[in-house]
Amino acid sequence: MTSILPSSGALFATILKVLSPGSPQARSIFNLGVETSVILAAIFAIVAGIIVYALMRFRWREGEPDPHQTAGNTKIEIVWTVIPCLIVVALFALTARTMASADPPSVGAPDVIVTGHQWWWEVRYPGAGVVTANEIHIPVGRPISVQLRSADVLHEFWVPELARKITAVPGHPNHIWIEADKPGAYLGVCSEFCGTQHAWMHFLVIAESAAEFAAWQQAQLHPALRPAERVAAKGLALFEQTSCVSCHAIKGTAARANVGPDLTHFASRRQLGAGIVDNTPQNLRRWLADPQQVKPGAKMPDFKFTDEQLTQLVAYFETLQ
Amino acid sequence: MNALTAVLNRAGLLTPQQREHWEMAWLSTVDHKRIGILYMVTGLVFFVVGGVEALLIRLQLAGPNNTFLHPDTYNMLFTMHGTTMIFLVAMPVLFGLANYIVPLQIGARDMAFPRLNAFSFWLVPFGGILLHFSFLAGGAPAVGWFAYAPLSEMPYSSQLGVDYWALALLVLGIGSVGTSINLLVTVLSRRAPHMTLRRLPLFTWMIFVNSFLVIVALPVLNAALVMLLADRRLGTHFFLPSGGGSAIMWQHIFWAFGHPEVYIVALPAFGILSEIIPVFSRKPIFGYEFVAGSTVAIAFLSLLVWAHHMFTVGLGHTVDLFFVASSLLIAIPTGVKVLAWSATMVGGRIKLNTPMLFCVAALVQFLVAGLTGVSHAVAALDWQTKNSYFLVAHFHFVFVGLIVFAILGAVHYWFPKFSGRMLSERLGKWTFWLMTIGFNLTFVIQHFLGLAGMPRRVYTYPDLPGWGWMNLLSTVGAFVMGVAALVLVWNLSRSLLRGKPAGDNPWQAWTLEWATTSPPPHENFQTLPPIRSRRPLWDDANPDRPDPVVGAQWKAETHLPEKNQASILAFMVSETGFFGVLILAYLYYNAVPPPGSNAHDLNVLKTGLFSLCLFASSATLWRSEVSERRGRPRALAAWLTATIVLGGIFLVGQGMEYWDLFRRGVSVNSNLFSATFFTLTGFHGLHVCVGLIALLVVLGLRIGRGAKPGHSPALRTVGLYWHFVDAVWVVVFSVVYLRPLIQ
Description:
The complex is a heterodimer.
Chain A: H1 8-15, H2 24-57, H3 74-102, E1 112-117, E2 120-125, E3 130-133, E4 135-139, E5 144-150, E6 155-158, E7 166-168, E8 174-178, E9 184-190, E10 203-208, H4 210-221, H5 230-241, E11 271-272, E12 277-278, H6 281-289, H7 291-294, H8 307-318
Parallel strand pairs in A: 1-5, 4-10
Antiparallel strand pairs in A: 1-2, 2-3, 5-8, 6-7, 6-9, 9-10, 11-12
Helix pairs in contact in A: 2-3, 5-8, 6-8
Chain B: H1 2-10, H2 22-27, H3 32-60, H4 71-105, H5 114-133, H6 161-189, H7 202-234, H8 247-281, H9 288-301, H10 317-329, H11 331-345, H12 354-377, H13 379-385, H14 389-419, H15 425-451, H16 467-498, H17 536-541, H18 563-589, H19 604-629, H20 633-663, H21 672-704, H22 713-742
């Protein structure tokens, strides 16, 4: 029942993420939202007040003649044309100010290149050479420059608590800054319709301390080890023999394709299928048994693996820490 | 079918002679009143289709991780819901109302072009069927009503759905332009004596302004659709980045149509509010001039705000700020309207009958929609709320909260005029309250879903805190609206049979449609009351306190514009929109010559000579017009023949040029130069062909009449069109052939 009747504090913090900004950029948008809301609420109160007053005060009663036929009042009309003009000028100035502070221009090379694919996000750190998917690790309290690209159709990058949203346009790289004040995992979604599985194109922005971030990046740079354990080794052999390798890459193996997500550190990720399920051995087994059951329309076909093959593959993927 | 005939009989909708063949009487009708009703009934049928689609969407979203619908099915449903509600419900119903009411309000017998009217109407069911046929042809489109490239392109949507969608929209677009030219010319040329433009009722005024907007905006969509179809079927790359095209270009063109489109369906709704609120407040509209003038301002500004749909695309802050400014500006004339309607109620004697209830709700809901709209114009806020359920809530407050509510108000207001019978007030109030509660339940909560971070167009969502119950409430609200729709249909059918007779003017309204019987006779009016102000029936009923006379007296020698020429001028405006987009596309894609063939490969001298023939044909046509005025039929025929020969030579020249290019391996899908070149010059050539056929018809009529002098009215009209086609070629020739010489 807690999720049905949350307290008002929890309502803002846990439900209305747009209203609980977690970065300077998101906060400057939030502040503009507050200022705009005050102005708009005042307008609403005045106009709705006039309507309600008219409805209460000026009702028709049987037998009364038609009222005085006022056809207008030029003075009033000029006044209520001029006042909105002033409001518009104020709103324009506030907007211009916030646009500059919430979305400053890019400087130098991007820290992260995020590429939208149908229906997952490729994440590259060009400096360090790390490649991952659907998870963006960032150090806390530092603005990170992100370049947005698309490999196919339009996608849109939106982490409500951290930044503005921006479209990933093929042939037209875009840029935003993301930053997080506090450590945590922030949910991001694709907000531009991109086809069958637009709904499941989630990602996580994982903000951590500088030390944790450095350690994560270090770990991600290692190629995958060849598993010693027998079942897992069979899983790797199976992976290399089947057409898995024509879409995926695992550093340290023959797989180098860039059609699907890079799997080198697959087991270190929290979610599977761009957010559709948690990354557990059981879910992975379901996914490999038939991806179309878990995520209908996903680009990965059903390979019709046997139970034994599934066990081997799952054992291998779980070694990819 | 006997039962249906009986219904129509009792409702007085058939004349005695027509009872035998009532189907034909309706199918072949060119009467604006029947066409109006056909439009509205068609809209109602598609409203049921679009409504069921909406309910299926809401069922799928009722709970998190729902598997009721396959994702592709869901995507088809929301695409079809949007397309249907805009093109097959809102536009037909509003055109239907305009068709019925405008000629009556201006004291006319019919529309200016009754046959064009019937043609435009029949394109609606045809387009609707074409669109829905996609379900049988491998699947409906699943790309959203905005069909963003490159998702709508062949590599990502290889089924036929998008092709059916584009063709259906072309058909509907042509019908809309036809109707709007008709309405425009009707208002200009069919007004009763003394009905000056300054005395027009506001509904007619807003339809008049709206018609301009349709004529300018729809051809822009048509041009975009033509390019999309060329990409999909002829292998060009207008919107495919992989071939050098631009995905953002599609958005520019689509929203250059798409935002005016919002006002195309909103302006008639404003017109409805401007009629009903004064009548039920028993007072004239507060500030007619400001309300009328703000309509023009809105129509004009609506052409300049399209990129506020693109604040997240990355156009840069400078461009964004221009569209912030233009979008905020549009709030001023809109605010003037809202205040005028509110002030009309102040000091009145408000009667809360069903039509007024719907309009008051529409006013308040539109106030909310307008204010959330301002928050979207503020680009930095739009960066957060765009493409979220906050936006879904915002535009449904416009489309349902304002437009559907206004239409329901209009149906309850004018139904007595259409049928001669009153709707039940009791059922009307049930419809109203169910609709209002259902609507607000569905959409108020969606603002918060958006603030919770829920993106739009998703077939399902995870079980995040709050998302489940908010969505469930929204679904419940949608079904309450469904019940309201059922009550409405019950009320309409029951009242058609057993409603209380309405009389001529049940609401004591003041405009001319209430000065005739309900329903009006075929010729609309026996006699018209004197027209001295904007409220002739008020003056009639209150001789002791009539409205002040508006504007100058009508002079006996006043000539209204000639309808054929007015229509061809309006058509030329619309064609300018179409060619304008093709020319801009040519300039954009050839600003830097693309690799492969380009404009430098064209033979300027040869085409220049053929172009001279075309330009000369304008001169010969002018000579034939002069001969006509001087009453010399033989000279007329000779000059006309010369015009046709010169036009023919131009076409032969264009054919030779095309043949030459084909031989060198340059075809429409070679590169972006060839794609833009062939579409631009090809569509121009097509217009020359049409012009030639029209000139041949004029010539044939002239020759058929022999040596008798006499007037040939078609000549002036076709002549205008021909001069226009030549003028377009002046621009095309400069842009395509002369521009490379300067560079």
